[in-house]
Fold each of these.
Amino acid sequence: MLSSKYVLSVIRQAVAVITLGGTCLSAQGADLLEVYRLALANDATFEAARHGFEVAQERSPQARAGNLPTVVLNGSNNVTQAQASFNGAPAVERNVSAWNWTLQLTQPIMRPQNILAYYESEAQVEAAQAQFAQAEQDMILRVAQAYFDVLVAQESVASAEAQLSAMEDQGVAARRGYELGTMSITDTHEAKSKAELARAQLIAAQNDLEVKQTELERLTNQPLDKLASLQPTVVAPQPQPADPKAWISQARDNNPVVRSQISALRAAGFTVTKTKAEFTWTLDFVASYGSNYSSGSASLPTDLETRITPATVGFQFSMPIFTGGLSSSHLREAYSNRDKLSAQLEETRRKAGSDARQAYAGIINGLAQTGALRSAVESGESSVKGNQAGYKLGIRINSDVLNAQQQLFASRRDLVKARYDTLLQGLKLKAAAGVLSEADVVAINGMLER
């Protein structure tokens, strides 16, 4: 898990990099690590999660304050203007000035609900910390997903362009053969139809690339056209340990959402006990000192100036007798909320285990699919060459060449997608187990080339 201090330092470094050389990224291209650090500094979702964690951290000192002494200073200064009549005499003006101030100290001695509120807040902060860890992992996954999507979309555009070029070349060959009388007009029409289909696929691929680039730009707040791509010979690593049960078990215990739910359930337990304390008595130590002054009284015919300096020390006891059913309702609510969180925790554990199982299977199946697609590309290249040679010799027809070319380009595109999908599944597996960090971004970044 990345600490908040570390994340903040990374953000500061990223901001400095952007300020000093942000324009260089667009010109020279960017790799996954650079894009990730850009997203840390610019992604609004992660920024909101970071501030949310800062908000949650304040619950602990706020709850601690309920067990510490409080000192309050109160004061007032006023003038009373009145007309008063004494013993039937005519009314006279009576003006009286008065002021007072009081300094009061209160120290809780017996307030169990305040102590339990502090323990409750500590558990809530732990839950918020786990939620922020989840936000950090989500940040990595969202960046990797957007980054890989752009690379796959770029490969789709390149494949569609190459396919269109190949279809147009085949169309030229078909027209030449028709003019020479060696090919039928059907071959020309078929080649043209395939070329127009490839053109439509190219337009769709270009549109999809624009969408994927927009999503990446939303994360980084910066256009990034050139991205480092995966080296051709790189193979995604096998999961370690190579035991899906170990990953599932770790996910059920260490997934950030699970840890957050565990802390939330612990906080709910303190809430129940705190609510029970509403039925008990409380005791506070109270001390006060102050001064009161009055120039007289509007209700007396003579002015008697008074000045009093009181000082009091004592204990304040409170015992709830009847609250109209409010405390009982609070207790029932606390019990129900605890039971709800308990059920949610079990569901979260199951989901974390399921996510780990699916991600592990995604890696294994992705590696197998990658190997099969590599063979398919090699076979497709041989098939295209063979069909083109056979077409020139007249033993293959035009549709054979076109179909072989289509299959080859589709296999190349699927191979690229399978490689990136396998890497992403590896990140998802670590995220499910709660161990995904920037080190994993660095590891994948080492597999890329500009």
Note: The chain has two domains: 4-68+112-280+325-449, 70-110+282-319.
Amino acid sequence: MKYSLLLYIDPATGAMLFTALIRIVSTVVFAFQKFLLKLKFFVLNGHIDKALEEDKSDLVIFSDHKRYWNVFKPICDELEKRKISCKFWTASEDDPALEEEYEYVSCSFIGAGNKAYAVLNMMRAYICLATTPGLDVYQWKRSKHTDYYIHTFHSPSVPLYRMFGLDFYDAVLLNGSFQEDMLRKLEKLRNLPAKEMPIVGSTYLDAMEERYASMEVEKINKTTDNITVLLAPSWGKSAILTKYGRRFLEALKATGYNIIVRPHPQSLTAEKKLLEELKKEFPNSERWEWNFDNDNYYVLARADIMISDFSGIILDNAFIFDGAVIYTDTNFDPSPYDIWWLNEPLWIETVLPQIGKQLIEEDIENLKNVISETINSETYKKGREEIKNIAWEYKGKAAELTVDYIVNKLAEVKAQT
């Protein structure tokens, strides 16, 4: 017993030791991969991206997927408006950014997967802005030639990131002050230096609200003769499609309503087999649609009510379209995520009862009545407005405040180098 106590390591310390080991191993592995990629470029008469050979850039914005253009476009527009030079690097060959005709913002496709990370790991910049978690944890390493890394969110919630998702960023741009508490607790638990956490609002929510204000109703194709239900789950073993699957879709179909199923983009790779089976069993029809649009705006606008689990799209729907929400009881498993360290519920779990109705498993067969009750609730409507004011500060000013922060930080970083 004496010796077993001496060998005991508490879970937090054990996780930190494991992380340190992973970082050491991954540094060696990815350094070797980077060398192989460089060698491949030369052997195949290719070239290392010109951006790596040029002088150090003031600002590089990196997007790991085209779906995040709604986050970055307002920022790029503001940089262009102020005539501030910037490089926008994307890992999507068909990113809408590549179609923009900017003068000061240079948009480039840097490759997908490890090719993109090889470029990022050799990046020469004073500041890098990204919405990608996991910096300096796995493939994406901090470049020794880049001074300052800034993270911006793509959801107006406290982020549901895998462990250590934001640990090695220098700054995190917040949508509202409510997000800071969790991040500060993680810093303290892991003995990390304090990040800068300015509150700037949400660029993509600002853009969505602007679109809504000028929306042409005839483009929405909203059905007038029947209710349209949008099922928009997250992904993973705690999400709706994995947990309930066929049973839930059968219940939706039985309502007789118009149904739109919009899986999380990550499901296309992480749950591909499940999706293919469900799409085959529930094919597109007059009242059933599978939606995989890159832009979620129009599908949200068409819906009368949304059903989800813990996905951030719930807040997009509630804040922009004042959309009714039903959220399912999925017994969320926090173990792969940062929230596990804090032994407390997700922020979105604490506010969902104010903005929508929880659907417990026993009520799945009574789904039609639950939908009718939730759509007509004035209590939930008032709750949505209250939570929006908490989660979305500085409405309409996010791009301006983000660029203000970047400009001031750039001057500070240059003065120190």
Note: Confidence is low (pLDDT under 50) at residues 1-8, 40-51.
Amino acid sequence: MKKALLAALILSLLYLQGRLWFGHNSLSEIRQLQAEVSELQSEIRVQREINEQLRAQLDSLRDSDNPDAMEEQIRERLGLTREDETFYLFIRE
């Protein structure tokens, strides 16, 4: 009886250790997920900084005393021209 109980306890211990090291939600999987979380958090920080910069640019365009500032930015970024203008694109080699 004691031998059977001891064998059952040893088998249970082996099973639980196996799950701890190799099974679903094992320690290695948890470490991997924590690394992914860290990467994503740093990416979120970078994206938040970019968003803040874009918001600052937008606010400066909205608050600008120059009404043509927004048009100038749009035309510069999108390469738009008016009917009486000629657009030149210089390509560096």
Note: The CA atoms of residues 74 and 80 lie 8 Å apart.
